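hi got a favour to ask and not much time before my train. below you get a single protein, a line of residues and a line of whole numbers that encode the local backbone shape. could you go over both lines and see whether the tokens make sense for that sequence. a few lines back from you is plenty, here it is:
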Amino acid sequence: MKRQNRKNLVFGFTLIELIVVIAVIGILSAIVLGVLNGARNKGGDAGVKSNLAGIRSQAEILNDTWGVYGVDATPTPFVVGACAASPDTLFSDPNISAQITAAGNASNGGGMGQGSCVSASNAWAVSMPLKEDQANSWCVDNKGTSRQVTPAGGDRGFLGVACK
């Protein structure tokens, strides 16, 4: 009988092999995280756009009810400024303020005050910064406008009581 002499045979990875595997995993994870951040920003922009679009239908319901854009027959105008649920304005409607708040949260977590609003008895407009590019905003108004605007100075993306 022939006898084989097996001396301490050790199976496993060398240190170099482990370092290479860890480096490859690190590179792949960096690529995946970069792609996910872009998708997250685009999702935030979609949230801003869809929530602001929902304001239009609720505002039209109020206009059909009262004949004006407001919560009663004699609404208080809302001068251009940060959105707030000021009493007796269009933006004090709970559905509208909830949609503006959701759009602000999708933008950067700022809630309702992140956006800009303006209203009169016969017109309104709302703009909210986009998540992917905070220098630009998405603006909607009672005329059916839904577009990207670039606020300049104090105009907040509006031209009177409409999107510019």
